[in-house]
Amino acid sequence: MASHRRPKQPSRARVTVLTTAAAAAVVLSSQAANAAPSEKPTKDEVKAKVDALYEQAEQATEKLDGAQEKQEKLQKEISTIQDNVARGQEELNKLRDGLGTMASAQYRTGGIDPSIQLFLSSDPDDYLDKASTMDQLSAQQVEALTKIQGKQRELAQERAEASTKLKDLSATRTELKKKKDEVKAKLAAANKLLNTLTAKEKAALDAQQAQAASRSTSRVNLGTTGSASGRAASAFAAAQSVIGSPYVYGASGPSSFDCSGLTSWAYAQAGVSIPRTSEAQANAGTRIYSQSDLKVGDLVIFYGDYHHVGLYAGNGQVLHAPHTGAVVRYEAIGNMTFEFGVRI
């Protein structure tokens, strides 16, 4: 006889959970269906974001320039120390050879030369102290051993200094790679944003930049450019000669520049050496805090961390290398956050 069991009814708690889940699914589905599609950023929004990325890239670029400069300096210092160590080792070898010659001469004449023990000892300092107290060395031998001692200490110090600088160089190279990667990432992000624009929008942005540069150039040419003299005038003239050159991060001329690369190159053409980075250039001369006191050729430092620099062009204008995608050009000082000028 077949068994007829009554089906087990779901518990009230289970029914409640299922009902709640189903209701939530319906709400979410409804919200998704009614949600507006993500809007494409406007040309002006893209420009604002790209400008911000370019500024961040320039901040990283100045750090990159600093690390590059430090690396080059360390490499030169290490090379000099290594050359000194090599020459010092040659001198030490000659001193030892000379002492050995004295010892051999005395041995041939039948004398007892304690200096021979020097070559059997790993501690000439200890031997010299003992030999001197026993009055066993001639004045000539004492002088030779003293020179050897001095040269050994000198070489030990130079080797220790070279070792420290090599560690510093390794850390600097790591920092250099990090900054390069940071710059590349910012520029890649900016390029990705620009690629969201249509050809027409890109053309409009290019025209907008060209128009702004043209207005700045006209204002400089139509008015007086202010007083400039000596090497500042020569540096400014050099910068004028490369107007239109592209901005390239890490570049310092003669055909492409970043901001501090332009200013350091321009002053170099005038026979003046200034630091490579904008941060260091901020301390390269007398600070001018009033824009009305600026003279043509003065450095102009922008932003609180001093990550941008240009050359004063007169009439409230600066001649500078702005950012990736732009060229060396005139621009109104008011377009950026002015900190102070620097008179070299």
Features:
344 residues, alpha+beta, six-stranded antiparallel β-sheet, 6 strands, 8% strand
Structure description:
The chain has 344 residues and is an alpha+beta fold. The protein has helices at residues 12-34, 43-108, 124-133, 139-194, 199-222, 230-240, 259-269, 278-281; strands at 286-288, 299-302, 308-314, 317-320, 329-332, 338-343. It has a six-stranded antiparallel β-sheet. The longest helix has 66 residues, at 43-108.
Strand content: 5-15%
Number of strands: 6
3D shape: elongated
Largest sheet: 6 strands, antiparallel
Distance between the termini: 112 Å
Mean pLDDT: 79
Q: Roughly how many Å is the radius of gyration?
A: 36 Å
Total number of helical segments? 8
Strand sequence of the main sheet, in spatial order?
1-6-2-3-4-5
Helical fraction equals 55-70%
Helix and strand string, N-terminal first? HHHHHHHHEEEEEE
Unreliable stretches covering 5 or more consecutive residues: 12-37
Helical/strand content category: alpha+beta
Q: How is this structure best summarized?
A:
The chain has helices spanning 12-34, 43-108, 124-133, 139-194, 199-222, 230-240, 259-269, 278-281, and strands spanning 286-288, 299-302, 308-314, 317-320, 329-332, 338-343. The protein is built from 8 helices and 6 strands; from the N terminus they run H-H-H-H-H-H-H-H-E-E-E-E-E-E. The protein is α+β, with helices and mostly antiparallel strands and 344 residues long.
Give the topology.
Elements: H1 12-34, H2 43-108, H3 124-133, H4 139-194, H5 199-222, H6 230-240, H7 259-269, H8 278-281, E1 286-288, E2 299-302, E3 308-314, E4 317-320, E5 329-332, E6 338-343
Antiparallel strand pairs: 1-6, 2-3, 2-6, 3-4, 4-5
